[in-house]
Design a protein that fits this description.
single chain, 161 residues, mainly alpha, 11 helices, 0% strand, elongated
């Protein structure tokens, strides 16, 4: 009986100490962190327990929701779209030339960082396919680029398509 009480006290003390370890919401992101926002040890323990019990923290990290700002499949897609929309003309010129910092950065955002040279080469070779008309939009470029990457075995493997 005494060992159970001692074990419980050590567990609670360990969780309390870990709740003091960070600067803001120490439970991380997830539903628990959104429901229990106060930076008190008890609230952080309950938030961490809620996140762990329901597995919602993993969902939040994957989707970039529930207060999870790093990583996320949805976030990555939005970063690509925002980058291309903001730098469309520069990307178009650099892809035509097969070199440049904007096109190289797009390669990284597409997940092709290790195959940037191949990405630039394929972009230059398929410029007319990627930019089918003068009024092509950033969305059109991304759709065409996804198709082009998928059709190139080296890029499909490197970029995770």
């Amino acid at each position: 009986m005494l060992s159970k009480k001692l074990l419980t006290a050590v567990a609670v003390l360990g969780l309390t100490v870990s709740a003091y370890a960070g600067s803001q919401n120490d439970a991380g992101c997830g539903l628990g962190s959104m429901l229990f926002t106060e930076d008190k040890p008890v609230h952080q323990i309950v938030a961490a327990t809620t996140n762990g019990s329901f597995g919602n923290q993993t969902f939040g990290i994957t989707t970039g929701t529930l207060g999870c700002s790093s990583g996320g499949l949805i976030k990555a897609g939005m970063e690509r779209e925002a980058f291309v929309a903001t730098n469309y003309r520069a990307i178009e010129k650099e892809m035509a030339a097969g070199k440049g910092q904007y096109a190289s950065s797009l390669s990284s955002l597409m997940g092709c960082g290790e195959q940037t040279e191949r990405f630039l080469s394929v972009s230059k070779q398929n410029y007319e396919t990627l930019f089918p008309s003068e009024g092509a939009s950033p969305e059109t470029l991304l759709k065409n680029l996804d198709r082009q990457i998928a059709s190139d075995p080296a890029l499909a493997q490197a970029c995770g398509v």
